[in-house]
User: Which sequence fits this backbone?
């Protein structure tokens, strides 16, 4: 193996942390969704690392399912963004206060 | 110990993917952020290739970089966000978000050093031997996908169908008031 598996899992943890930061800190709904994609990609990386470490192709199959769910999430999430934008132009989440009272 | 070319390529892609992820979540212009995410996805695809997951690398480029990211870019350009450049980049609470992200990463690193450091154990060295001999192949993935994972595979197609219909229903313009 070209690198120890710990390095791959550590890289995955760093990317996931960046995704968590982006999701919590950004106030633009599209960039929050793209931060979720960064987190899913980090999880895929750790699945591939474990698949290689344990010499088992099932990790790659699970990563494929994660990619399928990410595609579904992108479609529904961006549909929601378009619907929200039709009611109120802009993508800031701080202005979405209709459900507050 | 001399640095193998594959190892050097891995470390380049690791550093480049962390840098492009950081740039992606900090750029003010959403289109610039998307382009950095594209760089991240391509570098992660390179890491997949180095780890012997050729099929996943191709799927990463075709589905993530080719379909999902282009979809995001189309939505950003469709919405035409003039006020985005003037808005504050982060919410007021961004130090808390940074603390949560850093503490997650630190916890994962701690768990990692606990799990993978003790080498020399018989089972650990057996796993290391197996993984050094293992060359992932597309045929293995295909056999797993259509053997034990056939039912989850079909369910994934159902999830995608539901997502297509749901996206159309949610984003469609209401022509008649209910």
Assistant:
């Amino acid at each position: 193996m070209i690198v120890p598996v710990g390095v791959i899992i550590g890289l995955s943890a760093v990317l996931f942390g960046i995704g968590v930061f982006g999701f919590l800190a950004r106030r633009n709904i599209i960039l929050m969704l793209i931060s979720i994609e960064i987190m899913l990609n980090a999880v895929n990386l750790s699945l591939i690392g474990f698949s290689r470490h344990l010499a088992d192709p099932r990790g790659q199959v699970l990563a494929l399912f994660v990619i399928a769910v990410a595609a579904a999430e992108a479609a529904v999430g961006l549909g929601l963004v378009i619907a929200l934008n039709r009611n109120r132009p802009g993508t800031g989440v701080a202005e979405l206060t209709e459900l507050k009272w | 110990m001399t640095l193998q070319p594959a190892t050097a390529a891995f470390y380049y892609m690791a550093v480049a993917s962390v840098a492009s992820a950081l740039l992606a979540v900090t750029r003010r212009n959403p289109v610039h952020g998307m382009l950095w995410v594209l760089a991240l996805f391509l570098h992660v695809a390179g890491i997949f290739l180095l780890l012997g997951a050729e099929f996943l690398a191709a799927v990463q480029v075709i589905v993530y970089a080719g379909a999902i990211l282009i979809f995001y870019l189309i939505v950003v350009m469709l919405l035409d966000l003039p006020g985005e450049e003037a808005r504050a980049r982060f919410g007021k609470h961004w130090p808390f978000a940074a603390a949560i992200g850093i503490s997650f990463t630190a916890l994962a690193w701690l768990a990692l050093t606990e799990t993978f450091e003790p080498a020399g154990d018989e089972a650990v060295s057996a796993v290391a031997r197996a993984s050094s001999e293992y060359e992932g192949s597309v045929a293995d993935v295909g056999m797993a996908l259509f053997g034990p994972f056939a039912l989850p595979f079909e369910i994934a197609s159902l999830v995608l169908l539901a997502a297509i219909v749901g996206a159309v229903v949610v984003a469609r313009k209401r022509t008649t008031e209910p």
